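User: Can you predict the 3D structure of Homing endonuclease LAGLIDADG domain-containing protein? Sequence below.
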Amino acid sequence: MQTQFASIFSRFYRVSAKVNMVITPVLHEILVGSMLGDLTAERNNIRSNTRLHFKQSIINREYIEHLYSLFQDYCGSPPKTMSKFDSRPDKMKEYGAIKFVTLSLPCFNIYRELFYNSEGKKILPENLEELLTARSLAYWIMDDGYKHRKALYISTESFSLDENEFLVKILKNKFDLDCSAHPTTNGNRVYIFSSSRERLKDLIHPYLLPHFYYKLDLDSSL
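Assistant: Sure. Here are the predicted structure tokens for Homing endonuclease LAGLIDADG domain-containing protein:
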């Protein structure tokens, strides 16, 4: 009983000591880009605070460790690895993942409010063009971008066609990127044309981890 009480008290102390923490401008840019990708913001109810879930395939351990180094002051424990066996006949493979979760803090509530509707579905903020920066774009692409010949896809199938066209409009207006929404078997995704490859490199190279240079052939061309 005493050990259980000590554990509860320790967690309460960690949370209460961090309740007045704020998000720096750089971390804000990173969170905006990450929210467009794989990052999830969990809030149990309107009276509770929000915690963030960062999760990647185990092959992207370097990326998760990088993110944890940025957000560790907002966390209670380091990244954890996990594995799951997919027993479907066409898979039959074990998959590894690595993740970390922040504490539930008031400073994260804004991201839940911006990127989720009242039903808990992820959406796009109306002021996304104002929020999105080159650094945000780099983290979005590290999360969900993949190379296609000399062009680049961003996996945005979870968003509607209208939302994909909204993203395309922002990328064109704010960053002068030639792109469009391409249909796929399970929705639509943003496609950045090869004609904008050099422009995209100039925008995101300062923020891209070397682990992801292959997405724009940066290791061989720069």
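The chain has two domains: 14-122, 123-221. The radius of gyration is 19 Å.
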